[in-house]
Amino acid sequence: MPCGMTAPSRTLPARILVVFGTRPEAIKLFPVIHALKADPRFECVVCVSAQHRQMLDQVLEIAGIVPDHDLDVMQPDQTLDALTANLLTGLGKVMDTARPDRVIVQGDTATAMAGALAAYYRKLPVDHVEAGLRSGNIHHPWPEEVNRKIIGGMASLHFAPTETARNALVKENVDPARVHVTGNTVIDALHWVTAEIGHEPSLAAGLAELEARFAGKRIIGVTSHRRENFGEGMEQIATAIRRIAERSDTAVIFPVHLNPNVRKVMNERLSGLDNVALIEPLDYPHFARLLAIAEIMLTDSGGVQEEAPALGKPVLVMRETTERPEGVAAGTAKLVGTSAKTIVSEISTLLDDKEAYEAMARAHNPFGDGQTSRRIVELLADEVRHQA
Ligand code: UD1
Ligand code: UDP
């Protein structure tokens, strides 16, 4: 369908094109895809940009999703502009071929933003999962804060995880009737993977060797990948980890993101230390296992800020601001920035002060009850029915 034309009107089942490209989008969308595929009111077409390759494929495999379209766009150390240009043209072509009634995107990545824009250029309604997250600072997280705002300006339905996210959208003059508080699908994903491990424990057994090596030590789980932390931020994070690992009672397990800007620094600074395991990105069941055995999570990730509080794990967030203030408000997450001195001091407090630890280690789950995908599918069905 050429640009500028509206989508063909079609009776049920409605054809929904789900577009994503990175690990966190895949984790947060597989529950929606499972729900859509199980529902005869919908025909679910899956398009991956493969903005990530190996880290995306890890999720697709575990969730049993075979994409209908795969753009395979990832390039080593890709730039934002080249990536975005490829995404926009590639996703537009898929939309012209697949001729969906609606398009779903998730979160704040380049794929989500370009997917929404390509849909908008075709006058296709685009529905936004995890809408309304705002840090209030366009440089933190960068470029995600602006990606979210761009998508929010075009979306038809906004699936906000919390009231805070809903209020942020309403403040930006989004029609309140189009915003629905649904919870975050990451909790659906966490429930799903926990149940899978319950049925098949071998799915998460691959950490056994490390668990034996670090038996008796207090485990700190680390993830880091934010673009705004490249350079000095990553150096500081590495310095902090080196210092923490000097403690004989502590061990760090760090699945290192495949971004070369992360790997170079971490490999150079942290390889060969007795108390540090630099490992390849974990598939989702193994990451769930890491969350279970860790005493503390140290991260700059978005998703981990949502998962760790749900499991009662204190999470120290290596950022200046967060678009997920709910964990901080509840006292289960703390913003510590990227200064090595502050990170070491905050970790030491949690390790040495039982009361401080207990105050943070409360299971708290502001992000959903595991029923978010079901809600989203019902809202989509209502929308499609009203438009028929
Ligand atoms: C992207 C998202 C970010 C999200 C993060 C999740 C944007 C602008 N950024 O950042 O919002 O939080 O994913 O992890 O959309 N690489 C591989 N294999 C992989 C994945 C990445 O080799 O499976 C390497 C490649 O060299 C690639 C680089 O990492 O060029 C960067 O990937 P990219 O998706 O551009 O950025 P992320 O930092 O992963
Ligand atoms: N995750 C994973 N394996 C890892 C590290 C993280 O499966 O080795 C999962 C984690 O559980 C969370 C998601 O990946 O659901 C977060 O992805 P990432 O930190 O890459 O992106 P962000 O959430 O910051 O956008």
UniProtKB/TrEMBL annotation:
<protein>
    <recommendedName>
        <fullName>UDP-N-acetylglucosamine 2-epimerase (non-hydrolyzing)</fullName>
        <ecNumber>5.1.3.14</ecNumber>
    </recommendedName>
</protein>
<feature type="domain" description="UDP-N-acetylglucosamine 2-epimerase">
    <location>
        <begin position="35"/>
        <end position="380"/>
    </location>
</feature>
<dbReference type="InterPro" id="IPR003331">
    <property type="entry name" value="UDP_GlcNAc_Epimerase_2_dom"/>
</dbReference>
<keyword id="KW-0413">Isomerase</keyword>
<dbReference type="InterPro" id="IPR029767">
    <property type="entry name" value="WecB-like"/>
</dbReference>
<dbReference type="GO" id="GO:0008761">
    <property type="term" value="F:UDP-N-acetylglucosamine 2-epimerase activity"/>
</dbReference>
<dbReference type="Pfam" id="PF02350">
    <property type="entry name" value="Epimerase_2"/>
</dbReference>
<comment type="similarity">
    <text>Belongs to the UDP-N-acetylglucosamine 2-epimerase family.</text>
</comment>
